[in-house]
Write a sequence for this structure.
């Protein structure tokens, strides 16, 4: 782990999991997490000066196209942002979107899906499917990859299940970054890593999952795609930190997908914090992880 990653980890822990909250009630910790996310927004870098950002706002699709010089018209990444299904949007992800566009030499569509608690599952999946259909219709024959971080990783997998089950043309490859695939919080790492995790609260996983699931059971494959059928998936890269409470989501997904005949490459990064790619402007491991996504997709674009 680089010294920069170590310093960023310390800062994240101080912001999201301060010592004074260690014994606070669960609801107080969840409220603090939400406040910390919103406070972080003002410090998040925006799109670089050479990036082009184009808003999309139709009756069924909202989001932004972002691209940098060198992005090819015949390569598209649809990216679903994280934030526990209650926070986030394209604005907060412009820096990462531009970095992905540069590394992949592709146009990136940042989906702006409806958020809980006002809109619970399957609203986000419906929005993602509508966006996928829109992208395909506007770009016939162009290969589409899909990716997402944290909750967006779960949305990516759930949407891919829906694409497969509806007979649509599949994405050519997937990238799941620190994905939240099991909103029940049943993975062993939730407890095993609860004191090592620097950002997420282990005790809050089930509560947050119930908020998103709404009327669906939390172990329904739509909010928790880990419990879905993993057969027939596109080639998938999964990147996760070794001390994340969501580590087991990634390891269990790989086991199930490989057993079902799907191809999944799992990279467990030692001591990396949740979605360290968002720190790529500071942390060299973030740059390397993005480059690894680009290298993985390079084998699957077909052009």
């Amino acid at each position: 782990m680089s010294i920069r990653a170590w310093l960023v980890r310390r800062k994240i822990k101080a912001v999201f999991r301060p010592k004074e909250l260690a014994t606070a009630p669960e609801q107080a910790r969840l409220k603090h997490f939400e406040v910390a996310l919103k406070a972080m927004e003002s410090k998040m870098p925006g799109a670089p000066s050479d990036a082009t950002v184009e808003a999309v706002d139709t009756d069924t699709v909202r989001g932004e196209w972002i691209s940098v010089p060198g992005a090819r018209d015949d390569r598209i990444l649809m990216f679903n942002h994280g934030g526990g299904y209650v926070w986030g949007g394209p604005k907060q992800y412009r820096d990462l979107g531009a970095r992905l566009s540069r590394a992949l030499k592709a146009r990136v569509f940042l989906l702006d899906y409806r958020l809980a608690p006002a809109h619970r599952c399957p609203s986000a999946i419906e929005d993602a499917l509508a966006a996928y259909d829109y992208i395909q219709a506007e770009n016939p024959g162009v290969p589409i990859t899909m990716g997402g971080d944290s909750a967006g990783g779960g949305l990516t997998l759930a949407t891919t299940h829906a694409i497969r089950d509806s007979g649509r043309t599949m994405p050519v490859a997937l990238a799941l970054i620190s994905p939240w695939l099991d909103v029940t919080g049943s993975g062993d790492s939730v407890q095993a890593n609860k004191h090592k995790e620097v950002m997420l609260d282990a005790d809050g996983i089930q509560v947050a999952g119930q908020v998103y699931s709404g009327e669906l059971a939390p172990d329904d494959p739509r909010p928790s795609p880990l419990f879905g059928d993993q057969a027939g998936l596109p080639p998938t890269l999964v990147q996760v930190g070794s001390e994340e409470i969501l580590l087991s989501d990634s390891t269990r997904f790989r086991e199930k997908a490989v057993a079902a005949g799907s191809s999944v490459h799992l990279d467990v990064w030692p001591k990396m914090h949740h979605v360290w790619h968002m720190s790529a402007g500071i942390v060299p491991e973030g740059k390397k992880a993005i480059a690894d996504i680009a290298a993985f997709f390079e084998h699957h674009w077909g052009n």
The beta strands are 52-57, 62-67, 72-80, 106-111, 144-149, 174-177, 236-241, 264-269. The domain at 3-298 is CATH 3.40.50.1820 (Rossmann fold). The CA atoms of residues 42 and 196 lie 27 Å apart.
